[in-house]
Design goal:
alpha+beta; Aspartate Aminotransferase, domain 1; 3 helices; globular
């Protein structure tokens, strides 16, 4: 785990275990991804395109998939129509279903919208995979 992600996780005191489990699982399934702190929280990228990340919010740790709205997974909450993100919140490691998480990570490799070039396309998303 990258040091900057480790430090982020440690700063989430009561939810550090959740962050550590997410980071380790993501790194295991997205071995080719680049990870870094982006906009203040850990994010994994494939070829410069954001795929998955997590952040601390009031309801807990929000795990977000940038293209998750197209995963067709009822446990992932889809917020809006303009973007294709979907997320789930965790307050405890006991809430994390590792089988589902692994399935979502596998889908994140195969279902991707081009967020990398969204500014160049003036807010328009195009499907990559």
């Amino acid at each position: 785990m990258k040091e900057e992600i480790k430090l982020y996780n440690q700063s989430q005191t009561e939810l550090e275990e959740v962050c550590d489990l997410l980071a380790m699982t993501i790194a295991k399934f997205l071995t080719e991804a680049e990870s870094k702190i982006w906009h203040g929280h850990p994010v994994w990228f494939l070829e410069g395109n954001p795929i998955v990340g997590y952040s601390k919010q009031k309801p807990g740790i929000r795990l977000m998939f940038w293209s998750g709205a197209d995963f067709e997974e009822e446990d992932l909450d889809k917020k809006g129509e303009k973007f294709k993100d979907a997320s789930i919140f965790y307050k405890s490691i006991h809430e994390i279903d590792k089988i589902k998480l692994e399935r979502w990570l596998e889908k994140s490799k195969n279902i991707q919208w081009d967020y990398k070039n969204i500014v160049k396309r003036k807010g328009q998303l195009e499907r990559l995979k």
